[in-house]
Design a protein that fits this description.
The structure holds two protein chains of two kinds. By secondary structure, chain A is an alpha+beta fold. Chain A has three helices and four strands. Chain A is elongated, with a radius of gyration of 17 Å. Chain B is α+β, with helices and mostly antiparallel strands. Chain B contains five helices and four strands. In chain B, helix 1 packs antiparallel against helix 2 and helix 3 packs antiparallel against helix 5. The two termini of chain B are 27 Å apart. The chains are: A alpha+beta, B alpha+beta. The interface between A and B is medium-sized, with 24 and 26 residues.
Amino acid sequence: MIPQLVTVRYRRPGGRRLRLYVPVLPVLLVLSPLLLLVVLAGFVACLLFEVSPAAALRSIGKVLRALPGTQIELADGQMAIQVNVR
Amino acid sequence: MNEQRRQVLQMLAEAKITADEAERLIDAIDQDRPEPPVGTVSRPKSRPKYLRVVMMDSSAGEDPSRINIRIPLQFLRAGVRLASLVPPQALTKLNEKLSESAVPIDLTELKPQQLEELIDQLEDVTVDVDDSGSKVQVFCE
């Protein structure tokens, strides 16, 4: 299962907080024309560097599927950022 | 190790009994041991799923700096597989740059299987560094 939701929490030095909930699938759909270009560029790059495009796609798929559960939290003084992938 | 077994091994170490006698004694001790009650069969320990890195530094002032990262081990495995697709010419260039930086590591010698074994063994690794005001912990959970 690819990530469904990415949550970004950001606390600024002034104490103001920002919360961003990014639904991955709708964002991917919106960006699909760009994504198509990226896939084409990746395909050409694979051919140039003699890497199997199928193997590359499989590996990228595995990385995406393994992403849920990732949590990154950085805090420095009054500033903090937290990224959650679900 | 229970006390009786320890005594047998102690006697064997002191050459009071032979290896055969020690084996018979240990077998007898094992037979005397009561069977575990039904329903309390020990389950295999669940494998850890995440690698966690926690760093805290409170030496700078009253607001401590903190880093808390949780990465699925599956993500590391997938990353290793992705890294195995790096073309050989890129690895050669990387090796040259590493040699220039006095890091004599030959990346072409690193095989994905070895890296996967390394990740498998990572499950048992715990790093705990505690200094005055700072703390680093790396473990799997």
